[in-house]
Amino acid sequence: MRYGQRRVLDDIRVPALTAGSLTALIGPNAAGKSTLLRGVAGLAPASGRVLLDGEDLARSPQAERARRMAYLPQTLPGRSRLGVFEAVLSAAMAARPGRGHAAAADLHAVDAVLARLDLTALADRGIDALSGGQRQRVGLAQALVRDPAVLLLDEPTSALDLHHQYRAVDVIRRETRARGLITLLVVHDINLALRFADRVLVLHDGRLVADGKPGAVIDRELLARVYRVDGEVTGIGGRPTVLVHGVVRRPHSGAGRREADAIGNP
Ligand SMILES: Nc1ncnc2c1ncn2[C@@H]1O[C@H](COP(=O)(O)OP(=O)(O)O)[C@@H](O)[C@H]1O
Ligand SMILES: [Mg+2]
């Protein structure tokens, strides 16, 4: 994938993602994560192919691709006069074309997704009167209610407080498992990836540099090389957790703490 003459993603071969599994797509700023998601969604030109159940998606109309893949962009949902319930219901209806009016099942699906994302109390509130994090949860509700085969979520937790970050990713994982979705989730918080993802893909400078189970992929060497931090993965309360000691100022100079500047120390 390229912007003008500049090649952003080169020779990316994403391994097959299985139904019912949550894959975290991680990597530093500008690695190409959003570009890759747009390419998979068919929203930006890409050379190469995207296959779903072996079928080349470029051969089906974009509307059909959009029906099978729910894509949540990194930007928060824009201004809208709709209320929260209406906005999520209209997403549900858009995903089931040919249905003239909302059926009871659609209304139930909207109620259920609002409850899971802690939005029930805001159901009648206008989108314009929501905070950034509340709007982001509405965007996520709209993606989930579409009931797609593939869920492409670009930093859906970036504006959320801790409670709603964990709650949202837990809901994403549950829905992925229960409905057999193929879910690709861009997330910056490595601890969220460690906790919830079945698998992690790491993008760095437009290349896929690691792929595997979170515990196998995320280690001291990756933190230094890709994220330029001096950190470690350690067990806290029985859970693998990333601790960052400092930033590595000089890239590619090794992973030792000697090259790192400690942060937060007086
Ligand atoms: N619309 C665009 N036009 C030109 N360059 C872009 C555009 N969008 C992104 N880029 C560039 O492509 C690279 C990858 O961007 P992006 O996919 O947004 O990264 P990420 O989501 O990993 O932070 C960056 O160098 C960015 O500056
Ligand atoms: Mg991005």
Automatic annotation (TrEMBL):
Keywords, alphabetical:
ATP-binding, Cell membrane, Membrane, Nucleotide-binding, Transport
Q: Which SUPFAM superfamilies match?
A: P-loop containing nucleoside triphosphate hydrolases (SSF52540)
Q: Where is the ABC transporter domain?
A: 1-230
Q: Please name the CDD domains in this protein's record.
A: ABC_Iron-Siderophores_B12_Hemin
Q: Name one Pfam family in it.
A: ABC_tran
Q: Which domain of life is it from?
A: Bacteria
Q: Does the keyword Cell membrane apply?
A: yes
Against PANTHER family, the record matches this protein to: ABC TRANSPORTER ATP-BINDING PROTEIN, HEMIN IMPORT ATP-BINDING PROTEIN HMUV
The entry assigns this protein to a family as follows: Belongs to the ABC transporter superfamily.
**Name of this chain's protein:** ABC transporter ATP-binding protein
